[in-house]
Specification:
heterodimer; A: 117 residues; 0% helix; B: 110 residues; mainly beta; 5-stranded antiparallel beta sheet; globular
Chain lengths: 117, 110
Amino acid sequence: GAVVSQHPSRVICKSGTSVKIECRSLDFQATTMFWYRQFPKQSLMLMATSNEGSKATYEQGVEKDKFLINHASLTLSTLTVTSAHPEDSSFYICSARPGRQGDYGYTFGSGTRLTVV
Amino acid sequence: QKEVEQDPGPLSVPEGAIVSLNCTYSNSAFQYFMWYRQYSRKGPELLMYTYSSGNKEDGRFTAQVDKSSKYISLFIRDSQPSDSATYLCAPRGNDYKLSFGAGTTVTVRA
């Protein structure tokens, strides 16, 4: 089945530093990748949508200069949290939409738990 | 008002019971209806999807969609302790963006 690999699974960084999270589709080409943020006991909130070779589209209220998204190829998307602060601590999850017709369900990565100290 | 409303529970049932989960939504443009299961500190995994109104069955799982009342349901028959997880409904329209409910936490007691 479709597999999305997300790394790292857990990261602790100091306030003011930047952190990069990678999301790779291992056995399919991802036309679109989505990035979510999830707070404890809350649902997933969509942050941005990225299409290969295009600029990401950010949801309202998400700072695009803080959360840099790059979708350089059909199998790789990255999220960089720049100048991280403790309030950026959260669970970040990516998902990938295959380009195949009829694929309605998206595959999610296993998530990255970011802690900013 | 949220686009997708889902009772967060928690819901606790004995092993073998039927688990009934549901969501309501407000966006008439939603045409695809997904259910995901999420274990603690993991990414969601797709359980089922349904297009438009109707029922769909897959093993112990049945998904129902009633677009006229904007109501989505998931039933789990013969529930097992391994079904203990958070279940998220996630409808979407043609913009490919999923709108997640809050998730219902289910515990199946052995």
